[in-house]
């Protein structure tokens, strides 16, 4: 048997059953012959197609599966003698091992799919969809508007629905990866695996090439060369692509391993809806308990009645001074209310020296009085006033105070980094009044003490009649809302038709003081708490508010640096940058909420905003990976804060139990941190189905305090009989 016929036989073996028409000698057919051959072919094809079923196909492929021992036999791997021999090997092996290669492709595909869970999920969904289609069609065919939809069209529809989803979860790159990796593996195997007969048949084939017909030989050579060049180019491109995708995949899997470590650290910060609902339940219980008694030692929430019983009616008027103290600076404002809730505001921010925040209380109040004097003088407010004229002043004092009237308020404890001596336990209205009176010539009477949440609510309720709650999401966090006095057992004041409700200052930042948030607190939260000015207090606030967000992120970064996940080896390699790192790593409060917001919003391709921020705080040349991880940390911490804030707002909305409610919100997180606001709104939508609206209360804490004083003045001059409008429905 010649080698040529041996080749034919080999090919015949592999493709059995061989089609009969291959035996028809070329060049001898007439037209009739051709048509009869075609007829034969189509008859053959039809009959074979009819016979062909999955089992047969499987059996055929099974038969052409080469033994795996042979496939992996390392003795058989040798480089080809030359390019031609290599090309022949490729062609032969691809055909010879076709089933084995097919299985290799399937294994690579399975690997790719199971390492991309989203892809796997959508493929399963697609499978389920097709199964449902087949089930449905078994019962009765699908008909839409009297038009029967073929089952193939239904499958096509399922496929078309899934395609965009597949593309979204990266099916495109998965296909490229499978293609690249398969071609890479198959090419190497087919090139290096010797063909049976020790390559002999290839050499002899070469010898057998007809030499008499020069033109034919030339044509064959050109054809062969083109074929080899084509195959080589294709294969090299495929190798390139394969190598590129394998590189990308190993890169990303390196990233995934890296990120897995980071994820383990971040996981406790990722709150589930179930956890949020538990937070809601606990907050609600603590609110109810707080309304029953004043036992602030044993209760989480103080739930202070504020002695504000009514929102503005639109009849208020007059001019007021407002001192707004609550953050690291304070604001003095002059507010003119001109009827129908039209207000003009003129204000000035004064910085509070750090020494005053932690120094003697009396000095702080003296400083406030001094600033008031400067403000009045600078704005010539006394110019047209009579000698006896006294300004009414509303004192926005954003710390937990137990009030016994609108102008009597005892400070229970400092929060938010304040810690002046001799103020806790004293009436802060009196302290401010005494400081004012110590300055001869300053004619001011303090007429109301207002928490910033109450100011926020009042300012907004002058515009939205259904605004019954005020929330601060800023340096600290807190909320107030209108509560029916029937629900406030601890209220000892007047209860009548005019006093049917009161604004309750919840002081919800204190939630968790007795452990009800321990199930979501992380080690970082505990570390932050222990090193704060107020250990074991304001637990909820320390997880949410702007004063603490930056510090939480900083502590996580320090943890990641200590684990050599961030800036690996940099501290050791570059001693020159150690001092900078040390400042950042050691200094409490050196990373701000503003940094968190800016980094979280960094969508630049090279994370250049993050790089700039890190550089500005002394971390020079952070790598892309460092920036990426830090952005993940910022996102996670900020998302947790937004979710917790949403859970708390949801409780307020539920308690108000109105068909639609507006919540007034102020504070830097809500005002300036867009992603925080977005996450808050989205989570809230999931937690409360009730109609609600979140409204930014512009300058609420100043305008609203002036309104509190104005409502009080109006009620004194024209006492009301019954105000129906302000009752929660
Ligand atoms: C703190 C204060 C609270 C204030 C809040 C927002 O939680 O205790 O009174 O409303 O910060 O400023």
From TrEMBL:
<dbReference type="InterPro" id="IPR043129">
    <property type="entry name" value="ATPase_NBD"/>
</dbReference>
<keyword id="KW-0418">Kinase</keyword>
<dbReference type="GO" id="GO:0005829">
    <property type="term" value="C:cytosol"/>
</dbReference>
<feature type="transmembrane region" description="Helical">
    <location>
        <begin position="228"/>
        <end position="246"/>
    </location>
</feature>
<keyword id="KW-0812">Transmembrane</keyword>
<comment type="similarity">
    <text>Belongs to the hexokinase family.</text>
</comment>
<dbReference type="InterPro" id="IPR022673">
    <property type="entry name" value="Hexokinase_C"/>
</dbReference>
<dbReference type="GO" id="GO:0004340">
    <property type="term" value="F:glucokinase activity"/>
</dbReference>
<dbReference type="Pfam" id="PF00349">
    <property type="entry name" value="Hexokinase_1"/>
</dbReference>
<dbReference type="GO" id="GO:0016020">
    <property type="term" value="C:membrane"/>
</dbReference>
<dbReference type="InterPro" id="IPR022672">
    <property type="entry name" value="Hexokinase_N"/>
</dbReference>
<keyword id="KW-0067">ATP-binding</keyword>
<dbReference type="GO" id="GO:0006006">
    <property type="term" value="P:glucose metabolic process"/>
</dbReference>
<keyword id="KW-0472">Membrane</keyword>
<feature type="region of interest" description="Disordered">
    <location>
        <begin position="1"/>
        <end position="33"/>
    </location>
</feature>
<dbReference type="GO" id="GO:0001678">
    <property type="term" value="P:intracellular glucose homeostasis"/>
</dbReference>
<dbReference type="Pfam" id="PF03727">
    <property type="entry name" value="Hexokinase_2"/>
</dbReference>
<dbReference type="GO" id="GO:0008865">
    <property type="term" value="F:fructokinase activity"/>
</dbReference>
<keyword id="KW-0808">Transferase</keyword>
<keyword id="KW-0324">Glycolysis</keyword>
<keyword id="KW-0547">Nucleotide-binding</keyword>
<dbReference type="InterPro" id="IPR004895">
    <property type="entry name" value="Prenylated_rab_accept_PRA1"/>
</dbReference>
<comment type="pathway">
    <text>Carbohydrate degradation; glycolysis; D-glyceraldehyde 3-phosphate and glycerone phosphate from D-glucose: step 1/4.</text>
</comment>
<feature type="transmembrane region" description="Helical">
    <location>
        <begin position="101"/>
        <end position="134"/>
    </location>
</feature>
<dbReference type="Pfam" id="PF03208">
    <property type="entry name" value="PRA1"/>
</dbReference>
<comment type="pathway">
    <text>Carbohydrate metabolism; hexose metabolism.</text>
</comment>
<feature type="domain" description="Hexokinase C-terminal">
    <location>
        <begin position="469"/>
        <end position="711"/>
    </location>
</feature>
<feature type="domain" description="Hexokinase N-terminal">
    <location>
        <begin position="262"/>
        <end position="461"/>
    </location>
</feature>
<feature type="transmembrane region" description="Helical">
    <location>
        <begin position="155"/>
        <end position="188"/>
    </location>
</feature>
<dbReference type="GO" id="GO:0006096">
    <property type="term" value="P:glycolytic process"/>
</dbReference>
<dbReference type="GO" id="GO:0005524">
    <property type="term" value="F:ATP binding"/>
</dbReference>
<dbReference type="InterPro" id="IPR001312">
    <property type="entry name" value="Hexokinase"/>
</dbReference>
<protein>
    <recommendedName>
        <fullName>hexokinase</fullName>
        <ecNumber>2.7.1.1</ecNumber>
    </recommendedName>
</protein>
<dbReference type="GO" id="GO:0005739">
    <property type="term" value="C:mitochondrion"/>
</dbReference>
<dbReference type="GO" id="GO:0005536">
    <property type="term" value="F:D-glucose binding"/>
</dbReference>
<keyword id="KW-1133">Transmembrane helix</keyword>
């Amino acid at each position: 048997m010649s080698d040529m016929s041996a080749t034919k036989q080999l090919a015949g073996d592999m493709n059995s059953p061989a089609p009969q028409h291959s035996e028809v000698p070329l060049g001898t057919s007439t037209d009739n012959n051709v048509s009869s051959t075609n007829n034969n072919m189509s008859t053959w094809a039809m009959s074979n197609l009819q016979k062909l079923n999955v089992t047969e196909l499987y059996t055929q492929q099974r038969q052409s599966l080469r033994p795996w021992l042979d496939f992996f036999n390392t003795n058989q791997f040798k480089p080809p003698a030359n390019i031609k021999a290599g090309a022949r090997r490729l062609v032969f092996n691809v055909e010879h091992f076709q089933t084995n290669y097919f299985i290799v492709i399937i294994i690579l595909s399975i690997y790719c799919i199971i390492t991309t869970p989203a892809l796997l999920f959508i493929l399963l969904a697609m499978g389920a969809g097709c199964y449902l289609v087949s089930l449905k069609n078994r019962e009765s065919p699908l008909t839409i508007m009297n038009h029967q939809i073929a089952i193939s069209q239904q499958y096509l529809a399922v496929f078309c629905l899934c395609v965009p989803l597949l593309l979204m979860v990266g099916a495109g790159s998965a296909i490229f990866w499978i293609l690249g990796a398969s071609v890479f593996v198959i090419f190497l195997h087919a090139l290096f695996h010797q063909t049976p007969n020790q390559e002999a048949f290839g050499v002899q084939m070469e010898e057998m090439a007809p030499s008499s017909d020069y033109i034919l030989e030339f044509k064959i050579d050109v054809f062969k060369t083109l074929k080899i060049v084509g195959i080589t180019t294709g294969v090299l491109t495929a190798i390139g692509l394969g190598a590129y995708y394998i590189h990308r995949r190993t890169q990303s899997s390196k990233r995934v391993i890296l990120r897995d470590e980071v994820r383990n650290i971040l996981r406790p910060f990722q709150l589930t809806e179930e956890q949020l609902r538990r937070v809601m339940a606990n907050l609600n219980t603590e609110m109810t308990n707080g309304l029953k008694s004043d036992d602030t030692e044993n209760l989480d929430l103080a739930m202070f009645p504020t002695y504000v019983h009514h929102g503005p009616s639109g009849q208020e008027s007059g001019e007021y001074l407002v001192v707004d103290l609550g953050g690291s600076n304070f604001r003095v404002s002059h507010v003119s209310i001109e009827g129908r809730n039209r207000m003009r505001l003129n204000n000035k921010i004064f910085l509070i020296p750090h020494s005053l925040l932690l120094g003697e209380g009396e000095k702080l109040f003296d400083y406030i009085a001094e600033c008031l004097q400067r403000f009045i003088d600078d704005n010539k407010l006394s110019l047209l006033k009579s000698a006896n004229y006294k300004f009414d002043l509303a004192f926005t004092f954003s710390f937990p105070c137990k009030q016994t009237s609108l102008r009597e308020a005892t400070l229970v404890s400092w929060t938010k980094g304040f810690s002046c001596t001799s103020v806790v336990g004293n009436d802060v209205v009196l302290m401010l009044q005494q400081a004012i009176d110590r300055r001869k010539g300053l004619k001011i009477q303090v007429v109301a003490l207002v928490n910033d949440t109450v100011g926020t609510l009042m300012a907004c309720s002058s515009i939205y009649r259904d605004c019954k709650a005020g929330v601060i999401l800023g340096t600290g966090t807190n909320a107030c809302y209108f509560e029916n006095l029937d629900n406030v057992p601890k209220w000892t004041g007047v209860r009548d038709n005019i006093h049917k409700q009161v604004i309750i200052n919840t002081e919800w930042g204190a939630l968790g003081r007795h452990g009800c948030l321990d199930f979501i607190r992380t080690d970082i939260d505990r570390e932050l708490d222990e090193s704060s000015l107020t250990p074991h207090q304001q637990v909820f606030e320390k997880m949410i508010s702007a004063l603490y967000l930056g510090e939480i992120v900083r502590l996580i970064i320090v943890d990641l640096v200590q684990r050599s996940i961030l800036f690996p080896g940099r501290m050791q390699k570059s001693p020159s940058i150690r001092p900078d790192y040390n400042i950042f790593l050691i200094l409490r409060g050196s990373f701000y909420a503003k940094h968190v917001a800016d980094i979280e919003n960094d969508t630049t391709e090279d994370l250049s905003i993050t790089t700039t921020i890190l550089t500005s705080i002394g971390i020079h040349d952070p790598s892309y990976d460092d920036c990426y991880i830090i952005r993940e940390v910022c996102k996670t911490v900020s998302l947790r804060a937004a979710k917790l804030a949403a859970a708390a707002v949801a409780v307020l909305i539920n308690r108000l139990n109105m068909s639609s409610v507006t919540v007034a919100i102020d504070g830097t997180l809500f005002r300036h941190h867009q992603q925080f606001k977005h996450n808050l709104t989205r989570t809230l939508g999931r937690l409360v189905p009730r109609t609600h609206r979140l409204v930014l209360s512009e300058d609420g804490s100043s305008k609203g305090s002036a309104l509190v004083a104005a409502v009080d003045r109006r009620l004194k001059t024209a006492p009301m009989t019954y105000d129906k409008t302000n009752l929660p429905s």
